[in-house]
Amino acid sequence: MMVESSEDQEQFIFIYFYSRLNIGRSAIEDDLDEILGDKGEVTGGGSGISGSNIDIDIYEGSATDFLEPIRSILKEFNVPTDTVIVIGKERFQVYE
Questions:
Q1: Burial, 58: exposed, middle or buried (Cβ in 10 Å; 0-12, 13-18, 19+)?
Q2: Fold of 6-93
Q3: What's the half-sphere exposure (Cβ side, CA atoms, 13 Å) at 55?
Q4: Is the model's pLDDT at 8 over the cut of 80?
Q5: What is the pTM of this model?
């Protein structure tokens, strides 16, 4: 039996904003879609009492390859300091 590498499987990235955003989430989503190109896409998002989120599917390459570009975009939008990027079971702060 051949085991697929993680780069051959669809992967997911979740961005959680626990504090209120100062800008519309759609502006962030548009910039994220731009950097993902044909290797992934923003597939959802939402907001509620506990904050908001953006969901990203990665179709090609490793999700961790997108960590720094995503961080860069989030920093450009001055997202709150409690914003977290989740890839698999790992949580990453935007601001280190």
A1: buried
A2: Alpha-Beta Plaits (3.30.70)
A3: 9
A4: no
A5: 0.89
